[in-house]
Hints:
The protein is an all-alpha fold and 416 residues long.
Amino acid sequence: xxxxxxxxxxxxxxxxxxxxxxxxxxxxxxxxxxxxxxxxxxxxxxxxxxxxxxxxxxxxxxxxxxxxxxxxxxxxxxxxxxxxxxxxxxxxxxxxxxxxxxxxxxxxxxxxxxxxxxxxxxxxxxxxxxxxxxxxxxxxxxxxxxxxxxxxxxxxxxxxxxxxxxxxxxxxxxxxxxxxxxxxxxxxxxxxxxxxxxxxxxxxxxxxxxxxxxxxxxxxxxxxxxxxxxxxxxxxxxxxxxxxxxxxxxxxxxxxxxxxxxxxxxxxxxxxxxxxxxxxxxxxxxxxxxxxxxxxxxxxxxxxxxxxxxxxxxxxxxxxxxxxxxxxxxxxxxxxxxxxxxxxxxxxxxxxxxxxxxxxxxxxxxxxxxxxxxxxxxxxxxxxxxxxxxxxxxxxxxxxxxxxxxxxxxxxxxxx
Length: 416
């Protein structure tokens, strides 16, 4: 910051102190308010000129990826965050003294200064959040495809089970600590709460859609204990001659330990791992944005239980009413259009009873029109649920559990 800018900062700071001293004298109070307008205007201009080359730099939008990891935030981003933090502290003073809140020029005349500070903060945080979003969204969307990563080679003498998570989960576990650090640094102001909420809700929604439409059968089958041992034995050349050659000279030895067992993570395990990774991200402080984000997190937290129950076939529940009620409890915090494809895959023919097929539209059109976000999915839930229910009522042998669950969900929508 230039010496002239520092001078105007000192003048503004002195005027703020004078405001507190003359608060009871209306004439002096207005005089001090007028004296604030010029230093604040010059300060905003200088800060804007300071940010201009920084935000235009390629380094400002440089975000580490799994293939290119580096210091985050870098020096340019740290500089811009410092300017944003200064504006945030000044805006906090405005809030404490209720300055710049009038909608026209008949007030204190500081509304342009307040708006200018908010604009400077947005010039920093919005591009940074957008750059982080551009990396996170493709990773989350890729979770819809089954894990085709080949398990690592078994290690002799280690018989523990090794779970192979989806590559996107591994990438997110690597990148999220630095992303969380930057998001925490740039979302402490009230101006940043809406962009932060938008980022979190979009990531959580993409994750819910990906897992609810993911094929549970991995294209690369996980290694079973038997296949692991056979593969290791067949791929490892003998390091010593056959034991029979030394049967007389050497005492019998303990049989070799079986190698490690590598298995692919189920969709439920991947979903739980993703929830654990995202849980550490900062959240909006309060208000409707915080409530919406908390509800989205709750949906992702409870989805693994539904996926696991479906995978297990609900075998522990013997009677039809118990199964239907259990499904209702499992889907209580999950959006209807997210739980619907999971339930259909479990209690109907997935090849002929997908939601888009029942509606008579393509899968792409269904996603664009009905699965674009939480709000849109909620708007379409009643209509789509009724169409699906009417369809299965015409099926020769419909699942009683499916019909009961659909009817219960539609009744709940009417009640709310």
